[in-house]
Structure prediction request, 373 residues.
Amino acid sequence: MISKTIIAVLAVSASSALADGSAIITPVVITGGSPTAPVCVVPKIISPGSGCCSYSIANNVTKKFETYNQPGHVFGNEDDARAYAGTVHAKMPFFEPIGSGERLVGGWFYDNGGFHAAADYMKNDLSTSTDPSFLVHAVANGKVLSVYWDDWLGNTVVVEHTAGDGSKYRSVYNHVRNGFTNDLAHARAIDLSKYGNPPDTSNWSKYKKYAMNPNPDPRFWGGDDQVVLVKVGDQVSSGQVIAHSGDTGAGGAGNGLDVNGNPTDSRTANVHLHLFVAVPHPTIVGRWMFIDPYGVYQQVNTGCYALLKDTWYQRLYAAYYPSFHNISAMLLDKYQDYYRGMGMGMRTLGPFRRDLEKDKRRSLFCLSQAGRR
Ligand SMILES: [Zn+2]
Prediction:
């Protein structure tokens, strides 16, 4: 009885805030904002045969590289990967790394079905005369583990997030800018022989040509003032601006270049933010596994990444409602077990939307029946 009341109250609050309450109050089978909206299907999590998406990523605190795997490299089969993904929950508020002028353009799989294991973001309004870069925000409170250059990932920032119960998450921001002079020098210094002298059509070769252009376009390379704004050891708060998006690294601009190293889209040159989110490997200490923070594990064009559309797995991007039934979000978080005792669990339903008036992050916790797995 109590739980039903809570749902109803929240639904009213949420629906007034977001003009769409129908997805929130449907506890088990959730079809999104309208009866005709497609139900998100059980996602594919592993992609057998795909070699993509195991990376060595630096930890500048321990001065070691750590391995981050896609689920297909952690689990040999879909069932185990799904079972594990079902255990990943947001134990602290998470937000999208963007502002109101940007959007998600790429999801867990590429449109061709290839593994991506990350989320891509781009600016909404692009033209051939403006800088496609945008500000990158920390997705949650955390500590900066690394800021470094990688020939493929470009300038990379790693932040570790520790929830109140000790649960760890990592967010890895790739292809960001770290000053025109610095980025150009790194890009021009790429030694293709280290990568097996790849063919002209490879991202490596295209990126090298792009970098060797005697007149690098400042719209795509940025200025010397566009640097990473945090350093190793910094504590960052959720939403803090930490970097400027860019296309650094062969995996950044590379996909958006022709064989001569010229941008195929003269508005973007593939300037975007590629965000990995990872949780500890289920069995190997010091290893990390990529997860989909939206809980979708599909291509972006399924519609299932839409705000308030429920997914098979919980979203880490908790919309976070500051005053739920006069209970603060922190108390809700602290006493999750109390709500579980009533058959309720914390669900995270949607990415944050920026409060246009105060540029303040608005969000929303929702209680409904515990996760469906
Ligand atoms: Zn990407």
